[in-house]
Amino acid sequence: MIDANILVIDDDDDILLSARLFLKQHFNQILTCKSPREINVLLSKNDVDIILLDMNYQKGASDGREGLYWLEHILSIDKDYVVILMTAFGNVELAVQAIKKGATDFILKPWENEKLYATLSAAARLRQSNKKVKKLEKIHTSMQSDMARKFEHIVGNDDSVQQLQKTLLKVAPTDANVLILGENGTGKQVFAYELHKNSLRRKQFFMHVDLGSLNENLFESELFGYAKGAFTDAKEDKPGRFEMADGGTIFLDEIGNLSLPLQAKLLSVLQNRTVTRLGESKERKIDVRLVSATNMPLNEMVAKGTFRQDLLFRINTVELLLPPLRQRGNDIVLLAYHFLNVFGNKYHKTIKSIHAKAEQTMLNYSWPGNIRELQHVVERAIIMADGLEITENDLQLSPQKFGNQAVLQADMPLEEMEKMMVNKAIEKHKGNISKAAAELGLTRAALYRRIEKFGL
User: Fold this and answer.
1) What are the backbone dihedrals phi and psi of residue 212, each rounded to the nearest 5 degrees, phi first?
2) What residue stretches are annotated with the Sigma-54 factor interaction domain (predicted)?
3) What is the pLDDT of residues 253-299, one digit of tens each?
4) Which of 55, 9, 57 is nearest to 30 (CA)?
5) Residues near 6 by Cβ (< 8 Å), separated by ≥ 6?
6) In the chain, what's the furthest Cα-to-Cα distance?
7) Mean pLDDT throughout 341-348?
8) How far is it, in rounded angstroms, from Cα 380 to Cα 374?
9) Hey, which of 129, 275, 294, 433 would disulfide with 224, CB 3.0 to 4.6 Å?
10) What letter does residue 321 receive in the DSSP assignment?
11) pTM for the complete prediction?
């Protein structure tokens, strides 16, 4: 059985019956219709791979002009459709004309079953090849920056990190959905990529989707794709992130920021394992491994009715809770040396060590921005350093700067602490959202949501 869906269009009932009876033994799905005027509806509701199209429909017609017209119409919908023309009145000139206009092949009626099977088998292989090429082109165009990104690897000797790595190695080879929890900057994306890298899908795509920066109006078109003409700027068909990740892993970052209506749409896709592009009604099967992440308290949100319990059940077959950097002890220094090596090479600076006082300063600091903040601090220190060693002054972490933050971490609920940190960052930068977001390790969109959430 060949995995291909075939649409046969002919005004002769006997031809349609004969084609259906023979082809259903060899191909996944066979659709038939008597008039090419039904093409638009059939193609919008079904995932068709090959179209077997008669060339004459009006009584007495034999010049094939109707077939050539409908061939052009089909290819205007999607130039990658594989169309095979058929007629009882074939000639060489007509066959050449059909091929020039984009037909894949040309057969005569009545056909020989073996020849028809061979023609359609070759067409199915061509269609699958075209789909793979198209997918790669779309990913290259839409996801070039993501594909070029160099992912960090997990660095840490702390017991909590070692235990997380053991759990990760157990879970990675399965297709279990994983939810990664932790404060901003704790390395959730790094762990997500490690899951993919150690999975059976490691040779396929790792698709990172930042739901926190995704405009709500673009959610469906970005994640599920759209058809040509679905909206004003939809000038061509475009697969969504789920389709692009087919066979691989999709990482939904900041999933706690989704509104309830968008949660419902996501849940439907995860339950049915299908997506429907905007402007279409046909469902497309997807095979992805889901990894999600958030810094928000989802269980509390479920209790408050702001996060769907059924969606939480769906995404957290396994949970990984990443510890904040302040609880990882000497991993702070270990990570600092890791970044020292990375950014020393990047900026062509020969800095081999960190002074003991600088190390102690880092160990005393509460790191509200976690690993992301440490990375920025070390990068800045390397740029500013004059000698061969990072000093306390190079870090620009004064006791006054982090003393209050340490108290906040210990004495306040997480949400209240986050509110105060957001407020302080905005005040510090006099309302400059870009600078405040950069200091907090957030995107502008994510910071705007927190401002709205806390009523600031």
Assistant:
1) -70, -30
2) 154-383
3) 999 999 999 999 999 999 999 999 998 888 899 999 999 999 999 99
4) 9
5) 23, 27, 29, 30, 31, 48, 49, 50, 51, 52, 120
6) 95
7) 90
8) 10
9) 275
10) E
11) 0.65
